[in-house]
Amino acid sequence: MGSRDFEANPLRGFVIPIGGAEERLNDPVILTRFVEICGNEKARIAIIPTASQLDDTGPNYEKVFKDLGAGEAISLPINTREDAQQESFLETLTSCNGIFITGGNQLRLSTILGGTPIAQAIRRLNAAGVHLAGTSAGAAIIPEHMIAGGSTGALPTEQGVTFAPGLGLLNKVIIDQHFSQRNRLGRLLSAVSYNPFASGLGICEDTAAFIGPDNLLEVIGNGSITVIDPSELQYSSMAEASRGDSLTLLGIKMHILSEGASYNIETREAQPKHF
After folding, report:
1. What is the pLDDT of residues 54-89, one digit of tens each?
2. What's the whole-model pTM score?
3. How far apart are the C-alpha atoms of 273 and 185, rounded to whole Å?
């Protein structure tokens, strides 16, 4: 089961950003853990496939979760802002104890769900103890500020990242996904250089951050999570940089965390896996 007591009754549900391309068939440790914390046969999982434009995305995840032992898995085909106000979808969502947001285009999530009753219900339900996981685009939209795009490469630049509003489930992190596979270190550094209040989480594919109600993050999966901690940032040239310039960032801290390692979002302390 791992190092946590998942049976505890949390003040807030777990928030689980996944870096994308999570294993679904051969030892799907991330999705199995998600089903476990939702209660296995008692799990009732709502799937939101809005980011994807493929008709089979929702049904595919329904089958995956049922095969992993979930009692119920229901896809909500929310493809327009009108859909996001349907009472039947809201009723289904509020009867679930787990919510899963699929990958695709994160701007579809922000433009279709933003400000709707569905988005409001997601925030309310997670605050009341419902667990939420999102993969790829579904991970990007979890924080208050969503990375909508940006440059590839290791160097932070003045125009290295663009933002859009996220769901606001977490306000002390910024999340990027497909991190090492798509060489996104530079845009995450650019993101945290705007405001050293938030830690940056760069999540590799088939890797997830299980963030509990205590804001302790545990890494699950086969890759790593790069944590950018700007709390001791001494200087950022962002304010003086010209269009597209490379940035100077002094005093920034970085951790690389693999399976079982943890990071406390409140205290910004990282710990290795305890064997």
Report:
1. 999 999 999 999 999 999 999 999 999 999 999 999
2. 0.95
3. 24
Cβ proximity of 50 and 80 under 8 Å: no
Q: Can you give the pLDDT at residue 5? A: 45
Confidence of residue 2 (pLDDT cuts 50, 70, 90): very low
C-alpha–C-alpha distance, residues 45 and 173, integer Å: 25
Catalytic residues, which ones?
136, 178, 205
pLDDT of residue 7: 46
